[in-house]
Amino acid sequence: MQKYPVRPSHRPNLAPAALDRILGTHFESVGAAGPDRTASWGAITRIAVHAEGRDLLVEVTMNPKVSEEVARETIARYNRFLEETCGYSSKERAKRLKKSATTPPAGA
To answer: Could you tell me which of 8, 11, 89, 90 has the fewest CB atoms within 10 Å of its CB?
Structure first.
């Protein structure tokens, strides 16, 4: 499970209806399983997303036995989904993740 921060201007995208709409734009077979919104496409056999406070939680199940072309397009769709939902590009997400990994927790 991966946690992604969401820009304040993009937090309305965390609503279930908005997640359904955005998932439908980038993937197929959009559905709901409890609080999760689910979909699939290409190398992603299942993507499950839901909001947790100000963050987006994403769980992805991948099929490694797809062609290189399908794998590339799957990664591109996944990155476009995250950018539309969270408001951060892949470069910004990587920078924030690196910063959070090197910053000690508060009170430590």
So the answer is: 8
